[in-house]
Amino acid sequence: MTTKRLLIVCALALLAAGRVAATIGPAEGATRRIVYFSATDAKGAAVTDLKPADLIVKEGGKDRPIASVMPATAPMQIAILVDDAGTGAFQVAILQFLQVTVGHAQFAISILNPQPRKLVNYIDDVPGLNAAIQQLGPRGRVAVDGDQIIEAIVDTTKELRQREAPRPVILVLSASGESEVAERADYALKELRDSRAGLNVLHVTGIELGRVLGDGPKQSGGMVQQVNGNMGLGPVLAKIADHLVHQYVLTYDIPAGTKLNEKVSITTSRKGVTLLAPSRLPEK
Fold it and tell me: 0.70 exceeded by the pTM?
């Protein structure tokens, strides 16, 4: 066999082996978990070359073997909840957010008046999204109701579960905040966890962040950003967009007969790299 033909045969063998490795599922009886996360360097720029060897996954305090880590390319299902008290302050920033994320997601957009009113329902066509953006301008003063944002998040999580959204995301933009109701917060956080959605929040400085808007992003692997009035809305929301479009998808396995645990920890040994990953997962 010539050297050239030997190289071709070896290359084909390696490609075949790669295809087999890519399709290998969990061991018999094991449970495969899927987690989306992002990584940034010391300057806040996306880190896009992480490998399994760079990461450590623990569930319930126990090390879990990583099956794969790769850039997340599956389309997102992004539910945008706009709580602007009627000012229209978020309109331009949302347009800029869509310009970055269109092509990566389907979008539902709801506005609180104070009850949520859905403008579009998980679409990805630009004309439909532009029509929704036109409705996000100033509408006159809207009464603030801190319970409505919690209810809107709960309703959204249930809708995402019904749709069986494979990569769900919730983005809340709030100028009024939420009511501090502990019992309802527990329920909302459980619904958020069970939906597997990442909750991301942009809020105006000085408003009340209760447990849902405050702890929800930490538990679900989302991002919290604050702005002072209308200043810098676009660049701040762009950080959330960057987090979403540069996510990884990580899979790891739970051995057969092992009960799932809601507490998960994903860390990296790479110096100067910060991960934004969920700390809670569904228990089933």
Answer: yes
